[in-house]
Design brief:
The chain has 579 residues and is an alpha/beta fold. The chain is built from 24 helices and 15 strands.
């Protein structure tokens, strides 16, 4: 407790840290205390589990004035889960100190009305996700004009391309005298360059973040092809039986596939995804921390800054291209001086990444194999030789499956095999077709399927279509073709008249050539068909006589003139002149 007082912390804060089990401040806490208390801009970086959170919270609580009702410190994180974890640590330190600090939480997954109620209580410290804090400031709900400390935790994520605009808006909202602090286990040079315009000569408080990787964490490496990794999980669970394993995957799609396989195998696993609701993520973390489930499957962003005690194994389902991401993954185990195991599950491409990671951070990967349910060590030369052999065998099998035999008969055989049914003896998928459809088709073509190729080639080709097969077309077209083959004078229709290709014109000519009496006779109705008399309407006044045409009416109107009685409407029409 005395050592904390020497750093300039309040007695209440020093006593609270001692009650948490800190006998003395960690190296990063000692290094950051002076700059934070002086209100200087700083970059704080050290290994995971080294006490970075209290390295900036203790100085902030030692400088806050509890009597003021303004926001004096803002802590922003890239994810909801990390922001909720930071809020719990902040609230725990405030309650242990007994100074009565008011802490407000700002999360995007929490209704805005509830957060406005907490902000109405005039808190001194606001902890939340960067996106929600930016929205509260831009909406006028959060006044940052009196802020003295702005801390961006896991800053390397906040200054990536997808989040740099949010971080920039928050940095622009705080006053010029506010101390700006970036905190992360790894702060790459690109993060320093992107944030340079908002910082005034920041102090770089960097410690070797790879020390814990070399001292308290053991690194294993297994080889597995991409399609065999899920099957490897079953063997690993049976051989190792990890007490608490944190599994990392690169995408939510990979998490979905892994979760279905683990559920099928009966694993007790929880899923931590960024697109889940806040209550579901909180429940997954609590179940994993309490030991109700032994597997927690998550992504790099979902578990960034996650502090779960007693994680025995960390398994990277796929190795990331960025080496610093592996450092954050492995840092979830071996915390607070405990021993942990970080496992890399890699194919040939990812094995090269593992070699670069080991060379960069100065720790070795121990090559391992699973044989008969037991984990064995293997020499690196034999390990890589075995991995290349397995990959080459798999590649040859894939090429053999898609390779087509040369020649016409080989191609026919390959097509028959690829679409084969289950033949006699239970050969299964890929066996040749064992049906009589093809022999029947060959018999219809005049080829005996039992003959060999030489006899078949000497045999003369027989017509495929029988001689008595009817030509294409209907009966009417056949009769028309038979009629066209007859001489011109022999074409007779059933009624005895001459027919030609244009039947309508011949029929018309035949009707005009017949005598008038025959035409009248043909137009007479049949005697056996009664004809009903057609009703004749009464002839009204002014109605034109029946049979009078348009031209005759015009001539009649022309004789009468405009002033005649026949041309007037409503007058009776004159009788037509007798012819």
């Amino acid at each position: 407790m005395h050592e904390f007082k020497v750093l300039g912390f309040r007695d209440e804060i020093a006593q609270a840290l001692s009650s948490f089990g800190f006998a003395a401040p960690t190296e990063i806490q000692t290094l950051a205390a002076a700059s934070m208390l002086a209100g200087k801009d700083a970059f704080i970086s050290s290994s995971t589990g080294s006490g970075k959170t209290f390295a900036y919270l203790a100085p902030i609580f030692s400088g806050i004035d509890p009597a003021l009702g303004t926001v004096q410190a803002i802590v922003a994180a890239p994810t909801h889960d990390l922001a909720a974890q930071l809020f719990r640590e902040t609230e725990r330190l405030a309650e242990a100190s007994g100074l009565g600090f008011r802490i407000a939480q700002a999360l995007g997954s929490v209704p805005l009305s509830r957060q406005l109620q907490r902000l109405a209580a005039k808190p001194q410290v606001v902890v939340g996700s960067a996106g929600r804090i930016r929205d509260l400031i831009s909406g006028g709900y959060l006044d940052a004009s009196a802020c003295r400390w702005l801390v961006l935790d896991e800053a390397d994520r906040l200054f990536e391309k997808e989040a740099i605009d949010i971080a920039g808006d928050i940095l622009d909202a705080v006053p010029q005298a506010c101390a700006r602090v970036l905190v992360s286990a790894t702060i790459p040079e690109r993060t320093v360059e992107r944030s340079s315009k908002w910082f005034r000569e920041p102090e770089r408080l960097f410690l070797d973040s790879t020390e814990s990787l070399r001292t308290s964490i053991e690194h294993w490496c297994f080889h597995a092809a991409s399609r065999s990794k899920v099957e490897f999980l079953r063997k690993f669970e049976a051989a190792v039986k990890p007490e608490r394993c944190l599994l990392f995957a690169s995408s939510n799609a990979a998490i979905f596939t892994i979760a279905r396989k683990l559920e099928y195998l009966g694993f007790s696993a929880a899923i931590l995804k960024s697109d889940k609701e806040g209550n579901e993520r909180k429940s997954a973390i609590e179940d994993f921390a309490a030991g109700r489930v032994r597997w927690l499957v998550t992504t790099d962003l979902g578990a960034r800054g996650l502090d779960v005690p007693d994680v025995s194994h960390v398994l990277s389902f796929d190795l990331p291209e960025e080496p610093s991401v592996y450092v954050h993954r492995a840092g979830r185990t071996g915390r607070a001086g405990k021993h942990g195991v970080s496992i890399a599950l890699a194919d040939l491409v990812e094995l090269k990444r593992a070699s670069r990671i080991a060379v960069r951070y100065g720790f070795p990967f121990v090559c391992k194999i699973l044989d008969s349910g037991v984990v064995h060590d293997i020499e690196p030369e034999n390990f890589f030789a075995l991995a290349e052999e397995e990959e080459s065998v798999r590649k040859e099998v894939r090429l053999e499956a898609v390779r087509k035999p040369e020649g016409r008969r080989g191609g026919q055989q390959a097509r028959t095999r690829s679409y084969g049914d289950q033949g006699p003896g239970g050969q299964g998928f890929g066996s040749p077709r064992q049906s009589d459809s093809r022999p029947r088709a060959r018999a219809m073509a005049g080829l005996d399927p039992r003959e060999n190729r030489e006899n078949r080639d000497r045999r003369p080709m027989e017509p495929r279509r029988p001689a008595d097969r009817q030509p294409y077309g209907d009966r009417r077209s056949q009769e028309r073709q038979a009629t066209d083959r007859q001489p011109q004078g022999d074409r007779q229709q059933p009624d005895g008249r001459r027919a030609s290709r244009s039947g309508r014109h011949d029929q018309a000519r035949t009707r005009t050539d017949q005598p008038r009496a025959d035409q009248a006779r043909t137009e007479q109705p049949r005697a056996d068909r009664p004809q009903a008399p057609r009703p004749q309407p009464d002839k009204a006044q002014g109605e034109r006589p029946a049979g009078e045409g348009r031209n005759k009416r015009k001539r009649r109107r022309g004789k009468g003139g405009h002033g005649s009685q026949a041309g007037q409407p409503g007058a009776p029409d004159a009788q037509p002149d007798a012819q």
